[in-house]
Write a structure and sequence with these properties.
The chain is mainly beta. Helices cover about 5% and strands about 35% of the residues. Among the domains are: about 90 residues, Baseplate protein-like domains (Phage tail protein beta-alpha-beta fold), CATH 3.55.50; about 150 residues, no CATH class; about 90 residues, Beta Barrel (OB fold (Dihydrolipoamide Acetyltransferase, E2P)), CATH 2.40.50; about 40 residues, no CATH class. It has four helices and 31 strands. It comes from Pseudomonas lundensis.
Length: about 600
């Protein structure tokens, strides 16, 4: 608040810690009983601990309390601008961005631009292919990302602003300008701000971390990473799975930062002071402590501030000398050499169960997949305008069978509704388990009328209305297996094929029928055979033709019958041989040779 605001601070309490938004509850009094609370809400304010130190933030809450003879009591809560991110939740997807870029985008949406935050001394981090904010507040989302990558943040304050400082190393923290002496509370009087209580605690903690993960694109490799502290005690290993990494360096970084997070609680100091310069994220240099090991730099991880000024109340001025007055704090810290990693504050959201989504792809494409048959989808909760191939990461599609170049493959097509599960409930690891019919994509059967049928029907693409289909009818006495090929049907049988038909067989071929038999053909017909050829019948036999009839062989031609042999033609009749032509006949039988007319020599043969 500006200096023109008619307030006096009566008391305040507040707490601030690394990687947490601070919060200060402040009691004030004013001679004005009707201040405009709406105008004060969300305004920046500076809470001064001393002439040079204090906290800058925004008014998140303000209350008008009791009114006395001349003064009215007010109370407010002072928080950083970052705290406002807790009031907005979202479901959305970030793709191909580093964590720093994601955090910067979220902060920008809240009006926190790059002059109000800084990434101090950062290492290089790869972009995340896919990162989901699922039902989290923007604040919880940022804090979770910081935890996953081992980032921390704190605030630097001035009377007119505060800056959010992100870091991933100890060098990101700021040393206080001057040492603070240790002056015990029961000892001599301090000449200035001092630490009057200082305690050190050592805790047993994990001294080894191990993590493992799986990458389907490196299915033959075991992804592992481990880190160890130079401890002489027995191993206390923390094994985590999955490790959320696919690259070796990434796994080593995650494992090391997990170890640093556990180790940062090994040595913890706490104390009390009236030093107003103490702020979390800053190094306290302690001096004049009788234990030499305590003198040095300590990273302040948490500071609780408290102040009282009862003398501002004229109504109770007589009590001003009683009780605590002024400023004091309590603090916690860790050694300067111990890499600080913030503890987990918010768990990553989990999606236990399935959701549905719509398959997407570039404009004009009906099928969009990669070499693994993965597709992209648009989740129903995703409000982004992306409805094409940028809508999500590639999602693997489960099948009933998947082996080394064998199995089943059905690629969901653009526009289909699919059922999506999540590996280990992780929103960043979606996987498709099936497809669903809906009002836009109805079933290929009329149900419940055809409820006894099972069908697999495809659709010609692109832009086709044809289909291939396998349909099974299980209705009693109407059982049927139906196969429809929109164009070609190919069968390849590498050994035997046996076909048994207990009823009738019908076959219609609109074009040519070509059969090539590379060995013998044996065919048995138990009854009659009727063949109707509406054109010509051509047979070419490389060797012999044998026809055996149990009773009669009849051959009739409308015009001609020609028999030709290169060497010999034999007509053999057991009883009677008759030749008939031109009204005459020649009969040969056991009685002799008979002709209906005398035989004449000469004549001209008719060529066949």
């Amino acid at each position: 608040m500006g200096n023109d605001q008619p307030f006096s601070v009566l008391a305040f309490k507040g707490e601030e810690a690394i990687s947490e938004p601070f919060s200060f509850d402040i009691e004030l009094v004013s001679e004005r009983a009707s201040l405009d609370l709406d105008a004060l809400l969300h305004q920046p304010a500076w809470l001064s601990f001393s002439s040079r130190h204090g906290i800058h933030g925004q008014i998140e809450r303000i209350t008008r309390a009791s009114t006395g003879k001349r003064l009215t009591h007010y109370s407010l809560t002072l928080v950083p601008r970052l705290a406002y991110l807790a009031h907005r939740t979202n479901h959305r997807i970030f793709q191909r961005l580093t964590v720093q870029q994601i955090i910067g985008q979220v902060l920008k949406e809240h009006g926190i631009f790059n002059d109000a935050y800084v990434f101090a001394g950062f290492s290089d981090y790869p972009a995340r292919d896919y990162c989901v904010q699922y039902g989290e507040s923007d604040l919880h989302f940022i804090q979770r990302l910081c935890f996953e990558e081992g980032f921390h943040y704190y605030f630097k304050h001035a009377s007119d602003s505060h800056v959010l400082v992100f870091g991933d190393k100890q060098q990101a923290f700021t040393p206080l300008k001057a040492p603070t002496p240790y002056v015990p509370g029961s000892g001599m009087v301090a000449q200035g701000p001092a630490v009057n209580d200082f305690q050190m605690s050592l805790h047993a903690c994990t001294n080894s971390t191990f993590t493992r993960d799986y990458d389907f694109e490196k299915a033959g490799r075991t992804l592992e990473a481990a880190s160890h502290s130079p401890s002489t005690m027995r191993p206390l290993e923390r094994y985590s799975y999955p490790g959320h990494f696919t690259r070796e360096q990434e796994g080593k970084r995650h494992s090391l930062r997990a170890l640093e997070r556990h180790q940062s609680r090994h040595c913890v100091v706490s104390g009390k002071s009236d030093q107003p310069a103490l702020l979390s994220g800053h190094f306290l240099t302690l001096s004049e402590h009788p234990t030499a090991a305590h003198n040095g730099q300590w990273l302040l991880t948490r500071v609780r501030h408290e102040g009282h000024q009862p003398q501002v109340l004229e109504e109770i001025a007589s009590a001003a000398g009683e009780g605590f007055q002024g400023y004091r704090n309590t603090f916690e810290g860790t050694p300067e050499i111990a890499s600080f990693r913030a503890p987990r504050v918010y768990e990553k959201p989990r999606i236990y169960g399935s959701q549905t989504a719509r398959v997407t792809g570039p404009a004009g494409e009906e099928i969009h997949c990669d070499a693994y048959g993965r597709v992209r989808v648009k989740f129903h909760w995703d409000r982004s305008p992306d409805t094409d191939a940028r809508s999500s990461c590639w999602l693997r599609v489960s099948s009933s069978w998947a082996g080394e170049r064998y199995g089943s493959v059905t690629v969901p097509r653009v526009g289909m509704e699919v059922l999506v599960g999540f590996v280990n409930g992780d929103p960043d690891c979606p996987i498709i388990s099936g497809c669903l019919a809906n009002s836009l994509n109805p079933l290929p059967l009329d149900l419940p009328a055809n409820k006894t049928q099972s069908v697999f029907r495809s659709r010609s693409t692109p832009g086709g209305n044809g289909y291939n289909e396998l349909r099974i009818e299980d209705r009693k006495d109407q059982e049927l297996i139906y196969l429809h090929a929109q164009r070609d049907l190919e069968q390849h049988i590498k050994h035997d094929c046996r076909l048994q038909i207990d009823g009738q067989r019908e076959e219609i071929v609109s074009g040519n029928s070509i059969s090539v038999l590379e060995a013998d053909e044996h065919r048995t017909i138990s009854a009659d055979r009727n063949v109707q050829i509406k054109g010509s019948d051509h047979q070419q036999v490389a060797s012999s033709v044998h026809t055996f009839a149990g009773h009669r062989v009849l051959a009739q031609a409308g015009q001609e019958v020609h028999l030709k042999a290169g060497a010999l033609v034999t007509l053999d009749a057991g009883a009677n041989l008759t030749l008939m032509a031109g009204g005459h006949h020649l009969v040969i039988n056991a009685a002799g040779i008979f002709c209906s007319t005398p035989i004449q020599l000469g004549g001209v043969p008719i060529p066949g």
